[in-house]
């Protein structure tokens, strides 16, 4: 048979498949069909009932499940519903003799990705598995990203499962008591990195006087945080979305005021950024906030709201001394060490001015 793996220059992933059907002959037939394309599909398990299917899928973590509907004990629709919660990376294709659109609708609502009618044509089977595997890529990437964030930022996607989703609304505040040390660079990199992992992220420029996220990202927009200020008390997400800018990479950005006097006006509104974030943070997994170096009530409120404060310094005496002050302050505010991430930036950069600091890590 034509070997598709050697057809292109890029080798294809091997797609791991579980076959679920109560009739052993049907399982065997599909297995044989997939064996013809063994370089592309690998059957990692089979099951004869819905209950068995959920167990086998948990054990084998397949990419795709071919699922019958009518089976003893748990039927294929219930099994699909459980699998999509327990192993969200497994994409389910329902394969049934049932042509009733009601079954199709129920299967899709239960989380199935596609539907095949028995008896299935081999090319249709291969094509559907490939298509579903591709469509599910975003879910696989999201789950991989979730595994890479700390467990306290995850939440069980349902009480009875061991699958996780991200808890929404984490605020990451990037701050330095010293200007020019790299806060905007780091905030932009954190936000972009999270976005590339499929995580819903918003970058906020809260450096209200001299913010330069827009310059960094070459984003020019008429809309910015200034437009939100007189609507904070009844801010709704539709209006907020209309003010948020989209970078060509897909990153969502709430830009700072484009002129100093507008920034000063925003600062007249008590805790403007914090109050805006309170209203909208839940619509994102992470909100990354770039801040100015001056400390005031509004900045302290942002620290309090943050799940994580990224404290940036460079290896100069002035920067390390100021960082020490900040760590003492965080200590007095009873912040846990886990809340603070210390970043020593530009360590290799000889152009840094001022006396170099020798840093004893025990101090932190
Ligand atoms: N690790 C690094 N290596 C090289 N250049 C860097 C690094 N980090 C930051 N820079 C550069 O240093 C300059 C200042 O960085 P950035 O604007 O991110 O600092 P900032 O703390 O946000 O400054 P400000 O106080 O003006 O807001 C920029 O030109 C940036 O490209
Ligand atoms: Mg900056």
Q: Layout of helices and strands, plus pairs?
A:
Blueprint: E1 15-20, H1 24-35, E2 41-47, H2 50-60, E3 64-67, H3 76-86, E4 91-96, H4 101-109, E5 114-117, H5 122-135, H6 137-147, E6 154-156, E7 164-166, E8 170-175, H7 183-196, E9 201-206, H8 213-216, H9 237-243, E10 245-246, E11 252-254, H10 260-268, H11 272-280, E12 286-291, H12 297-305, E13 308-313, H13 317-332, E14 340-344
Parallel strand pairs: 1-2, 1-3, 3-4, 4-5, 8-12, 8-13, 9-11, 9-12, 13-14
Antiparallel strand pairs: 6-7, 10-11
The protein binds adenosine-5'-triphosphate and magnesium ion.
What does this structure look like?
With 364 residues, the chain is α/β, with parallel strands linked by helices. It is elongated and about 75 Å long. The protein has 2 domains: 4-141, Response regulator (Rossmann fold, 3-Layer(aba) Sandwich), CATH 3.40.50; 168-363, P-loop containing nucleotide triphosphate hydrolases (Rossmann fold), CATH 3.40.50. The strands form 3 sheets. A 7-stranded mixed β-sheet has the order 10-11-9-12-8-13-14, sandwiched between helices. A 5-stranded parallel β-sheet has the order 2-1-3-4-5, with helices on both faces. It has 13 helices and 14 strands. The termini are far apart. Adenosine-5'-triphosphate is lined by residues 176, 179-185, 207, 293, 345-346. Adenosine-5'-triphosphate binds at residues 176, 179-185, 207, 293, 345-346.
